[in-house]
Amino acid sequence: MSSPYFNLKVIEITRETADAATIHFEHPDKQTINYKPGQFLTLILSIEGKEVRRSYSLSSTTQEAPRLSVTVKRVEGGLVSNYLLNTLEVGQEVKVMEPLGNFCLTCAPQNQRNVLLFGAGSGITPLMSILKAVLTEEPNSKVTLLYGNRDEDSVIFKDKLQELEQQYADRLHVEYIYSQPKHDCDHRGRMNQSMIIKILERLQLAKISNAVYFMCGPEGMMEEVRHALDVLHVPADCIFRESFVSNKLQDKQEEAQHGAVVSSDEDEEITTQTVTVIYEGSEYSFVVEPDQTILEAALDQNIDLPYSCQAGLCTACRGKCLSGKVHLDEREGLSDAEMEEGYVLNCVSHPLSANVMIEIG
Ligand SMILES: Cc1cc2nc3c(=O)[nH]c(=O)nc-3n(C[C@H](O)[C@H](O)[C@H](O)COP(=O)(O)OP(=O)(O)OC[C@H]3O[C@@H](n4cnc5c(N)ncnc54)[C@H](O)[C@@H]3O)c2cc1C
Ligand code: FES
């Protein structure tokens, strides 16, 4: 298996808003990096002498190869976002891990569907990649974007979206929603259930069957979208969501799964256990203390397992639990089907029994 790590060179940095910028990369040999619209890149940086990793969704599409781009929004007090926005320079090389993620769309020219996107703030980044891919690769599909921002100045990709709306006038429609608009606007306030339903009804998109729904943004916004889609009886398997920030544990009921593989019961005692991980043909056994996750214990032993967000969101560290019982602190990144199949996220997992064996890849 070839290494999932490589270097990319910064070839341009485009300022999007006062606190967001797009970083454009190229492979130093101009190799094309393959990825699906909606996937993310893991940037691996050395800041203040310490290696740090963060996930950033690709806002480009493979049609723009060999260029690939991520768009970063500043998080107040945030280590990496501030480093990238204040310090990174054109010409610098950045170590990355190959594109990953399940929040993605596979395009095919014969598709004839509605792609409905719901985004707010930096949540626009994977949606932008999906939007551009559908417009260029599915000539018979339409895209509608409901896009929430604080005000007109904080809209990432504003010019690009306007340009695309003109270029694909009958295939792309964007509705802007502002919580604190500076001027008169169509939708004032935060994106909420009734606003979403009204917009979709007006656009005659409330009762359609050939649609897929993607959402990315703050948890509150995604809850509102989810409720609106429930009211409109949209089937759950047509709805996809991506979180950039970790949430509290989900409802215990939702998490109790078949067999004894994955658990989130907070009453279960986490004790010191030896865990075995199989990765790229090698088997590693190591001790995991109660205050460590399986990933942390592996990294302490210099076992180079894959990871990115370290918050149970991105699935870069996903493995399948072959035996034993594991507690998950967070399950945002896993679907119900994955939970049932025994998948775990090593960055938020703790062994609950002596015989835990996890296979990655
Ligand atoms: C799959 C995935 C894709 C992502 N894609 C993007 C992207 O395309 N663009 C982008 O800008 N970010 C994206 N993120 C978020 C990104 O990885 C970082 O978490 C973010 O840049 C903050 O990192 P930091 O080092 O600046 O902040 P940290 O130093 O890690 O955190 C500082 C404080 O801010 C809080 N915080 C962290 N992230 C956020 C956030 N997003 N919003 C509000 N508070 C936060 C933390 O809880 C902490 O209290 C993505 C995350 C995931 C998991
Ligand atoms: S590293 Fe992202 S889910 Fe574990």
UniProtKB/TrEMBL annotation:
GO molecular function: 2 iron, 2 sulfur cluster binding; flavin adenine dinucleotide binding; metal ion binding; oxidoreductase activity
Keywords: 2Fe-2S, FAD, Flavoprotein, Iron, Iron-sulfur, Metal-binding, Oxidoreductase
Keyword Oxidoreductase: yes
Signal peptide: none
Domain called 2Fe-2S ferredoxin-type: residue spans: 273-361
Top-level taxon in the UniProt lineage: Bacteria
Entry keyword Translocase: no
Pfam families: FAD_binding_6 (PF00970), Fer2 (PF00111), NAD_binding_1 (PF00175)
Required co-factors: FAD
InterPro entries cross-referenced by the UniProt entry: 2Fe-2S_ferredoxin-like_sf (IPR036010), 2Fe-2S_ferredoxin-type (IPR001041), 2Fe2S_fd_BS (IPR006058), Beta-grasp_dom_sf (IPR012675), Cbr1-like_FAD-bd_dom (IPR008333), FAD-bd_FR_type (IPR017927), Flavoprot_Pyr_Nucl_cyt_Rdtase (IPR001709), FNR_nucleotide-bd (IPR039261)
Domain named FAD-binding FR-type: residues: 3-106
PANTHER family (UniProt xref): 1,2-PHENYLACETYL-COA EPOXIDASE, SUBUNIT E (PTHR47354:SF8), NADH OXIDOREDUCTASE HCR (PTHR47354)
Official protein name in the record: Ferredoxin
Species name: Pontibacter korlensis
